[in-house]
Write a structure and sequence with these properties.
This protein is an alpha/beta fold and about 725 residues long. Bound molecules: adenosine-5'-diphosphate and zinc ion (ZN).
């Protein structure tokens, strides 16, 4: 897309891509002073002013006399060709209209506002004649950090002096006071600080990653290693190499709760804090990060998937940690998988990608098998830690009291840990008190008024919550259907109910319940996790939040309450997800010197997936799973897309689905098949009915092109909406 011309004089025609839902760029005249391709601009659109990016020379196919000038060029570095190119390719791949794609890349608050100013302080002239300890400390800090400038507050903290000492030095000319834009660069990172002493395995993997980076060629490496094997230590070496080359690195984490701990590790390794980008970061900070990334004033960014759309000046490396994690798939608005988009962005930027996981996605495993990705393995856990032993508890043989879920065998194992002063984790992937609330008088189950989902009792909050739409209401005392009082009863366990059972079974134990809805902020959660790691709990009761990446050195037992939970339903990815989750949870046990044990409560111990989990024969599992997917022609051996149609009128939704399914000539032309329409995995959300068509095509088929042609004539009526989901999570 390299434009034949990138600089425009006043009055020249330029094409502007706006963030408004229009299906093409619009022509404008370059403003006074001209503009360049990539400039962020404000343009008039009807009576409004909207944000846009100069995309290249104008097309000139409008009535030239009516073309209006650009209002102004915003004060921001122009969007680089690399990012424009990435957005274009990502839009093509995900079949997302360009304006929606551009909105992902322009989420900088206050973009275009003039920078606000503040006072900063840096080294000035000669030291004053009369020196004091306090004065000396200030000058030492400024000396140590070379040319860096600090705010008054920062400098007084770092030197441990009052602000008046600094003001005094300003008067004497030893410190210089300047006006500066608020957006200060991040402190520089030092890639030459020593790493931990790596094991032989780790050192070999780190050397390979460094070598890949130095080659300067784009490419992807799958870094596979059991939990606790030191993947993070290893990829930190790739970050070091990237920094030494003067390039920027992006580390994606699947969970905001993990960032705080990770940032501490980066700081320990490189001597300075990286930039942090996710929904919990303040607007002012985001604005600063966005600008600094563009200027190279931020070298390492740690963030959520949206960080993929930041305007890096020279991106050298993207790490996708826990690359198998399904939260990398954005399921709202623009539907994309951050792992795949990372590979796409790196390809255009000439950067390297490292996909790290103990339990890779089948996609990445297959790409490594096919030789498309390099693969590095860390086989052993670091230090004395060994992988936990895994065993099934056959629930058919266990005698349980009604409405209890901790089997006698599991109780015994927990008791033994309590006596040894070690921690246990009880894992159940269900938030709330009970998944179902039923009326014992009439059999009514309380559902959400707006969704095809049950309301889940959250007893700690004394409310019912819909996990689809977030709707909440107070826990009723009478049945909303029959009006009988006192007959509503919980059915099945959620994490809160399990905690109740554990409290009764182990009255002497200190319990900690970890579930995303029980913590107001990422900080509160981080503190809780640190407390647990330090030994402040005997039994941890958690949802999948605890399965991800946390380090609990005293934890030696993992009890999975319902290992069969993920195997229900017809989703072809169920086996893969259960395998990953179970191995991941089990990996929480025995991370330090103490050996771990994982016990899986199951009613089907002979199920092939359960057997594979227990035996730990990963390669065997992947090969069997791959063979099944190959036979079914589904990803990663075939291509799929989902078309989700939604609307308030169910008949209209189905009519459109059926019409599309009948008129499938463009799809048949590439040998693709359409299945459905059928109710979508969540059939009603917020009062809107949802149906889905699934499209299956051969691996190399031009699926996106065919879908575009198929949907081109479509005009949506009323409140009907249609979303295309390339590579859906469930099929
Ligand atoms: P992973 O990312 O594979 O789960 P980590 O990199 O988090 O593993 O390592 C697990 C723990 O072991 C961490 O506390 C880490 O600091 C420690 N560790 C790993 N390798 C080394 C090493 N070579 N020297 C010292 N500590 C190490
Ligand atoms: Zn709902």
């Amino acid at each position: 897309m390299a434009a034949e011309r990138d600089m425009f004089d006043q009055g020249d025609l330029v094409a502007v891509q706006t963030t408004q839902p229009l299906d093409r760029t619009l022509d404008y005249r370059a403003p006074e002073g001209g503009c360049v391709t990539g400039d962020f601009v404000e343009v008039p659109l009807g009576p409004r002013k909207v944000l846009g990016v100069v995309w290249g020379p104008g097309r000139g196919d409008f009535d030239r006399s009516k073309i209006r000038p650009v209002n102004r060029v915003l004060d921001a570095a122009p969007m680089r060709e690399e990012l424009r190119h990435f957005l274009t390719r990502a839009a093509d791949y995900t079949l997302t209209p360009m304006p929606a794609m551009l909105r992902l890349a322009t989420r900088a608050p206050g973009l275009g506002d003039p920078p606000s100013m503040r006072k900063i302080y840096r080294k000035g002239g000669a030291a004053p004649d009369r020196m004091t300890d306090a004065r000396r400390r200030v000058l030492e800090v400024l000396e140590e950090y070379g040319g860096l400038a600090f705010t008054l507050h920062e400098l007084s903290e770092m030197a441990g002096v009052t602000t008046s000492v600094i003001k005094g030095l300003v008067k004497l000319g030893a410190v210089r006071e300047e006006d500066s834009p608020r957006d200060l660069p991040f402190p520089p990172m030092d890639p030459s600080l020593p790493s931990k002493e790596l094991t032989e395995d780790q050192a070999a993997a780190a050397a390979a990653l460094r070598e890949h980076l130095r080659s300067g060629r784009y490419g992807t490496t799958l870094l596979k290693g059991v939990t606790g094997s030191g993947k993070t230590e290893v990829y930190m070496e790739a970050v070091a190499e990237c920094l030494a080359m003067g390039k920027q690195a992006l580390v994606l984490l699947p969970e905001i709760a993990l960032t705080a701990g990770f940032i501490t590790r980066v700081e320990a390794r490189f001597g300075a804090r990286p930039a942090e980008w996710h929904s919990g970061v303040t607007m002012t900070e985001r604005r600063r990060i966005w600008r600094m990334i563009g200027q190279g004033g931020a070298q390492v960014v740690v963030g959520a998937r949206s960080a993929l759309f930041l305007p890096f000046r020279e991106l050298g490396l993207i790490i996708v940690d826990e690359e198998h994690d399904s939260s990398y798939k954005q399921e709202d608005g623009v539907l994309y998988n951050a792992r795949d988009m990372a590979v796409l962005r790196a390809a255009g930027a000439g950067a390297r990608v490292v996909l790290a996981s103990a339990t890779p996605s089948l996609e990445s495993w297959a790409n490594a098998e096919a030789g498309k990705y390099d693969r590095l393995d860390l086989k052993a856990r670091f230090g004395a830690a060994v992988l936990p032993e895994m065993r099934a508890i056959d629930m058919r043989a266990e005698k349980l009291q009604p409405s209890t879920w901790i089997s006698p065998s599991l109780r015994q194992a927990v008791r033994a840990r309590l006596e040894a002063g070690e921690q246990s984790l009880l894992f159940l992937n269900r938030r709330g008190y009970a998944p179902v609330t039923i009326c014992r008088a009439c059999g009514h189950q309380i559902g959400c008024d707006h969704c095809d989902a049950r309301m889940v009792e959250h007893r700690f909050q004394n409310r019912l919550i819909c996990h689809q739409c977030g709707e909440t209401k107070p826990m009723p005392t009478v049945c909303p259907s029959c009006g009988v009082e006192g007959k509503l009863a919980p059915v099945g366990p959620g994490i809160e109910r399990l905690a109740e059972e554990a409290a009764a079974a182990f009255p002497e134990a200190r319990l900690a319940v970890l579930s995303s809805d029980l913590f107001g902020s990422a900080r509160a959660l981080k503190e809780k996790i640190e407390e647990i790691a330090a030994g402040a709990a005997d039994i941890v009761i958690g949802t999948q939040l605890v399965a991800k990446g946390h380090n609990f050195p005293l934890l030696t037992l993992v009890g999975v309450i319902d290992a069969d939970l993920g195997l229900q339903g017809s989703d072809l990815r169920a086996a893969e997800h259960t395998f990953q989750l179970m191995r991941q949870v089990a990996g929480r046990a025995g991370r330090a010197e103490l050996p771990g044990l994982a016990l899986l409560q199951t009613f089907q111990p002979e199920h092939p997936v359960i057997r594979a989990i227990l035996s730990g024969d990963e390669e065997g599992f992947w090969r069997a799973e791959a063979a099944e997917r190959q036979a079914a022609g589904v990803p990663p051996y075939g291509r799929m897309a989902g078309i989700v149609i939604s609307g308030s009128d169910l008949a209209a939704v189905f009519d459109l689905g059926n019409a599309l399914a009948r008129n499938d000539a463009p799809l048949r032309a590439i040998g693709a098949q359409v299945f459905g329409p059928a109710p979508a995995p969540i059939a009603r959300v917020r009062g809107r009915h949802r149906i889905r068509l699934l499209i299956k095509a051969a691996k190399g088929a031009p699926l996106q092109e065919a879908i575009s042609r198929w949907l081109a004539p479509l005009r949506l009526k009323g409140d009907l909406r249609l979303a295309v989901d390339i590579d859906p999570q469930s099929f």
